[in-house]
Amino acid sequence: MPAEAGPETQGAYRLLAHEAVTCEQVLAPHWACSNEGMREHPVVLCVQDTTELDFTSQPGIAGLGPLSSLRQHGLYVHPTLAVTPEGIPLGVLDAWMWTRDPETLGKDKQHWPIEAKESIHWLEGFERCAELGDNLPDTRLVYVADRECDIHEFMVRAQHHSQVDWLIRAAHNQVISSTCQLLPPLAAAQPSASQPAR
How many CB atoms lie within 10 A of CB 158? Predict the structure, then answer.
């Protein structure tokens, strides 16, 4: 805690340091307000990505793990942000946090089960959106994710949740089953739906 911290800051530090306080409890009121705000919109984008919090310059913090290399340490956060199609933020819907195990950093995890990979957070985030979709019948949710989410396990699970649309940036040269064509040439041949604002 900073030495110059006032009583409010000291109280916040004590609250967040208490072992009985969880991230979920702290965020629960925000999540409830975000969900209510989403009801007011016909379409809400649920945007997910991973970011790293780098605490390498603060070596005294316990419980951190390696980041991109063993020389860096910190933690990862994978939030889902709700925004309108116009870009107005409505709130954070969830936030998965984890640290990497230094023993497995850099190992080939291709044959690991999805539950043991960091990729599981894409599926967990989508499941959270599907739960919200069940409770927001008048709001269409669109899950938006980066190319890390272009994984078979995600595609299989997402097909079972018709209340949530999804838009994934392609990482693999997928075959579109209805046309037997590869995705990049098929997408390139489509007419443009809109033009960017100038």
Answer: 22
Structurally, the chain folds into a number of domains equal to 1
Predicted pLDDT at 57: 92
Domain containing 180 — which CATH number? 3.90.350.10
The reply to whether the predicted model has a pTM over 0.90 is: no
For the stretch 128-154, pLDDT in tens is: 888 888 889 999 999 998 877 777 787
| Residue with token string 């989508």 | 126
Domain encompassing residue 26: 17-188
Strands (E) across 4-134 are located at: 43-48, 51-54, 65-66, 73-83, 89-98
pLDDT of residue 114: 75
| 92 within 8 A of 33, measured Cβ to Cβ | no
Tokens encoding 11: 């109280």
**152 inside domain:** yes
